Each structure stands twice: as structure tokens, then as C-alpha cells.
Request: fold
Amino acid sequence: MSGTPLRVGVIGASYAAAAHLPVYAGLPEIEVTAIATAHRDTAEAAAERFAIPAAYDDYEELCRAADVDLVDVVTRPSLHPPMAAAALRAGKHVLCEAPLAPDVASGTEMAAAARTAGTLAVVDLQSRFDPALWHLRELVRGGRLGRLYNVHATAFYPTFTRPERVASSVWCADAATGASSLRVHGLHTADLVGWIFGPLTDVTGHVATREATWPGPDGPIAATSADSAALAARTADGALCSIHTSWLAWHGGGWRLEAYGSGGRVVAEAAGHTGHHPVTLHGAGPDDPELRPITPPGTGEGGAFARLARRLAAAAGGTPDPDLPTFDDGVGLLRLAEAAESSS
Reply:
């Protein structure tokens, strides 16, 4: 496949139309050849909008298509297991949205099926590929912070505070879909903390549903998913970490991470979810009077998802890439979520 575009079939046309398809359209390494949704009319509308040759209302048919090399599963978590399984049975590479699955059991089955298939099975933890966060990891590995003391991260978003924001993601109100503030946004942050500073251990936490209804376009919507979560953990060498997330923060300050060590302090910030908003870095040594900007290299290479997609295309073409997040990584995050929820 080297030298030819990776042919992608996309399942889902809501979030995919906002975040994946526009990015694919700008990448010569990617060719979207098919799209599937639950309804023929929505599939055909998305195909026309993005100039995609084939539209399906049966995702299994897309998975069997000869002109699809990779299936991008961009649906709610409760639908991921059967869709990924269909793609793996067909011998396709898979990119699956995070969270990987609605629970550890189904996620573990997905990871086992991926190992049996022997194809690429990647979970979309695209925030890892933000240039600033990638650079922060390199700095930490290079000893910039010295001995790590503390990490504190917050993700406060106003996602479900107004009807116009609720309309496109009503499914997130239902816990049965695998949604919660912790699982949809918090796990991305937990993944970054573990990926940058080392695996998290001794995870405890609290989750809460502080609002029983959301302001829907046609009136209140019952909400059973947890809208707030606070986690505590340690890194392998004992540094204390805390993660606090909410998607009901009216004037939420976006995303922020602070890390302190014997070598100084680093602050990373974004206006919103790190998969969609660029991250800025500031840092200071113990004797510096104030924080100073840190400029990462490679900022002209596109956003986080574009960088992930390029690496995925290269890996599908035969270039091994140990930095791509796997289904096993996705299962690890689900275990973290369940540990936090069980200790509430």
C-alpha cells in the first residue's frame, strides 16, 4: 500500500462530519471511499457533501467493501463493539473513537478480536498528537521537571448548558450509551497525564450527576450520565495527580494542566477539548521570576487529528509506529474510569 492513499470507510456522520471528514479532505495520504449511517438519506447527504463515492445504511456492508482499507468508527460508545468487530472480521484496520467501549468487558473483547485479526486497531486519543503536548512529553522525558512532585489537570466545559449545544449530542445524557463527563472528556485528560508522566496507579475518585435534566431544544432532557468527576492517582514513582472534569461548567475555563517538580513548573492550556483546540505551553525553573512561553517544534504540521491520521496512514502502509494508541490503551482507560466510579 506504500505510496497510495489509505482508503477509509467512515461509520457515522454527526461528529465525523464536524471533526474527521473535513480533516481527511485535506490529507493526500487519506481517501474516504465510503460512509455509512443508520439511514440511507443521511448517508447519501454526507456522501454528497464530502464527495464520497459510496453511501451505505448497513455498516457491515461498508466493512466488507473491497475499496475500504480502514474503518473509522465514529459513533456512540455502546455501538463501538459490534461495528469494530464487523470491521475486524473483514480484515480491515480500525480507528475507533474514545471511549473505546461502554465497559471494560466489551472493550476487552474488542482488544482480543484485534489481536486475532492482526490488523491495526487504534483508539482515537488524538490529543496525544497536539504539537505542544507531544513536546511536553519530550521535555518531561528529558528531565525538564526533574523529580516530579504533583500534577493537577482540569477540563471544565459548558458543553451541555444550553439547548443549541445539547442538540447535536443528546445521546450523552444517557449513561447506557457509555457516556459521562469522565468517560467522554475526562479519559482524554487521564490518558494525557499517564502518557506524559507515566502510568497512573492507586486510582480513586468521585462521579456525580449534579443536574438531572439538560436544556434540550424542545424542553428538558432527562440526564442519567455523570456530569462531573474528580480523580486522584499516583504515578509509578509516587507523584500525586488529580483530574477534575465537568461538562456543566457555565463559564468553564477550558482545559488546564499544571505540573511541578524539582526542576520547576510547566503549565499547558487550551480553550476547550485538547483534541480540537490548540494547546499552549509555559514553563519556569525554580529560580525564574515568572512563567515563559515554550514554543514546540513542528507546529505547522496540522492539528492533532491530522497528525494522528497521517501516522495511521503510514502505519497501514507498513511503517511500524509504537506511539499509536491501541485498543489495549483504550481498555486501560476504561479500567481507570471503573475504578473511579466504584470508589464514589
